Amino acid sequence: MIRLPQAGGGVREYAPRAEPLAVPPGGALASRTVFSAAHVVADPYADTTPDSPAAVDWDATLAFRRHLWAHGLGVAEAMDTAQRGMGLDWAGAAELIRRSAAEAKAVGGRIACGVGTDQLASPADLLAVRQAYEEQLALVEETGSQAILMASRALAAAASGPEDYLDLYGHLLRQASEPVVLHWLGPMFDPALEGYWGSADLDAATETFLEVISAHPDKVDGIKVSLLDARREVELRRRLPAGVRCYTGDDFHYPELIAGDEQGFSHALLGIFDPLAPLAAEAVRTLDTGDVAGFRKILDPTVELSRHLFAAPTRFYKTGVVLLAWLAGHQDHFTMVGGLQSARSLPHLARAYELADGLGLFPDPALAEARMRSLLTVHGVPR
Questions:
Q1: Using CA atoms, how far apart are residues 21 and 19, in angstroms rounded to an integer?
Q2: Cα distances (angstroms) measured from residue 222 to each of 6, 157, 191, 215, 378
Q3: 260-292 pLDDT, tens digit each
Q4: Do 137 and 173 touch, CB atoms closer than 8 A?
Q5: pTM of the predicted model, to two decimals?
Q6: Considering just the CA atoms, what is the radius of gyration of the chain in Å?
Q7: CB 218: neighbour CB atoms within 10 A?
Q8: Which of 80, 109, 102 has its CA nearest to residue 93?
């Protein structure tokens, strides 16, 4: 038994499982295109502060990407899950993109990389925003990776209305050499993105978003929607031009959105698939056979863990993701760039451990238990 602290105070005993689920690596997925947004592994020996440039353990970071590729998932690199704007600056993200793209070529893995404006100081005008996007787009394309045009805090601050979004995104799409993924990240993930696409009214913002896509459908591979609103995502994907995919970024409703309905389905680009990679891959392989019920049977039980990790304030979900990577043996420590390991409470982390253990996510449950015990001991939880 292990004693886990509870949110309301006190501790309770939990019996960890003895055996993991055996989910071997497999080949490419067929019925859906699935990306996992991947976290970065900090260098725990670096003498840094929360304001310092990120110190990354490159060997462990790239090893985790090989883990994702081995299960048949694509890697969405240098995204929100990698702490862009929350510990990882543009210099660190650029190095991450270069290294991961080279690794993808070496192992034959699929990769798409985030393009943003986080090299800018605040405030910035629209010309500076465009030039920042262009700089990052050029780097991603030079590496041979697919580009994901991320939502920009600087653009949200500088734009005066929908016309500024239409003009800037139109310019970038005309310039892109290959079709890109457009990313709509809601303010629950980043409060600075409130009012993106020129309006706080989501219906009006949706119309602007669709206008951008319809003007350049040949340059848009797909859209990633991270609004945690399944109804809105379904309505949006039904209005997309032919050939433009919807990649769900909804970490609350992903099983039903990926399964789809008689009018279509969503592909996936999800931060929760970082800890769920083996189960996510197994579920989609089941879906590849046409077994929707089997797909839901595997993936539905994971939603409770995902909702817990992404609970408000949602932007701190990365802390739980890295905790689970440490407990699963993908890295040797629970340290994050920017000191973000302190962003969640001990009861929150304890519940994340319990839910993940119940799903069989830890390849070595005894190792996960021992590591969780060590974290509890450091925080004064009695054995």
A1: 7
A2: 41, 25, 24, 14, 45
A3: 999 999 999 999 999 999 999 999 999 999 999
A4: no
A5: 0.96
A6: 20
A7: 10
A8: 80
